[in-house]
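Sequence of Pentatricopeptide repeat-containing protein At5g41170, mitochondrial-like (Cicer arietinum).
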Amino acid sequence: MASPITKCFQLFVPHYTLIKTPSFTKSNNHPNMSPVKPLLITAHSFSLTNSSLQHTTNNNLINFNHKTTKLRIKALVQNIKSLSSFKNKPDKILQKDAQFQIQTISDFNHLLMALLISKEFNLCLIMFTKLSSFQLVPDCCTYSIIIRCHCEKNDVEEAKGVLFTVLENGLQPDSATITVLINSLCKRGKVKKAMEVFEFMRRKGLKLGVQPYNCLLKGLSYIGRVDEAIEILMGMKKRTNLDLGVDVYSYNAVMDGLCKVGRSDESMGLFNEAIEIGLVPNVVTFNTLIQGYSREGRPMECLGVLKMMKKHDCVPDCISYSTVLHGLLKWNEIVAAFGVYKEMVGIGFEVDLRMMGTLVRRLCKRSLKEKGLIHDADEVFEKMKDRGLVVDKRTVEVMVQAYCWRDKFDEALANLNDMVRWGYSLEAIEFEKVIEGFCGQGRVDDALSSLLLLHANGGIVDRVCYEVLVNELNARGRVFCASFLFGVALKQGVVLVPNKEPMPCEYYEGRGTAS
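Predicted 3D structure, token representation.
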């Protein structure tokens, strides 16, 4: 008959999956003895894999990634924290409270794992110290969780201590547990200590999988010891028949190290080698090459890698495109950069605002020699405004100049109004071409509006703007307006030398000339 007392792990029912945790097994001086099959992990962290639904055993944990389970974990941890917040002994309370009744080491491991997943590392370690209060003996799963907990807290020395204590007690760690420890050491730059652990476990006869090797490769590459990483990689490749294997992540780690020290061509050599032995490159593989060539100032090689991705049926991500686009812009490959931009927009990626601004300015500058590019600049500029983005001042100024070159003075004035709306300070130089353009088209009122816009927003009107307008007003016989504008200029200390100094209206009336 089932026990009426609710166990800790039963709070998570019915979300069980059969999961083997990183564990220790009795070695009994048999180094070839197979350890408990570990859970599948990456070089950075545990990742729980699903399998068929079965009843739990001592080494089975729950699917902590399930949404409902996460909510129950959160509630459980909150209850435990509330029990321990009043300086009570949580172990004593858990023993008395039926909701948290712990009867087996499996129950206790579920509790520790819940605290670990919830990042309650201190509470997890406190509970571990209270294990004897439950009259329980830690098993392989318990120690694995504690090692992981120390690693998450950056206490890798403590994690090493737990590992060596367990070894002294005759237990043998599996590859998954070693991976977590080596990865933690490498991420903190303690590659030498990681190699010590690695070599020690190899001497102990532990059959290490590819994951600990990959962690070590990444650590060596990160600190620039790339040649050592290559040596280990070649050794892994030779031992493929011994079930060690080598995967694309192994190559990615070493390729990244080579690219970071300016040896991208050698990295490409490793890429070709990986293809030859049947490995399938992923987006990280290609992005590594793109970033390497970009650092070395070789943007066209970056573009070549982008095209290579499509040949290998690998879909480029936003990082791939953005890195290529940045490199092309940096080294002034403008036509190719616009092509990459068009491709990004066509796919649906949002291009960084600063890169769009750079692209607009470079296209405008190049359009002085290649007139067709001005339409491309216009397209990118309008896209920036359609996204509701506040365009940087320099980009707007360049586009105003470009509109003036094409006699599109209405568009130029509209962008000057946008500058006012976005709070940019206005400079007279942007207005000179607009005012001259309007005057050249006989649109003197629009030219006056441009001048008033500059003056009303605190801009300093220069002599050129005043002279152009005074001359145009004189030419059209609007002498009163010309005289008024002439007086405004003098009041502001601007001395004008117009083609003809405007005279008072009475002067023209006395000569029979209508003003």
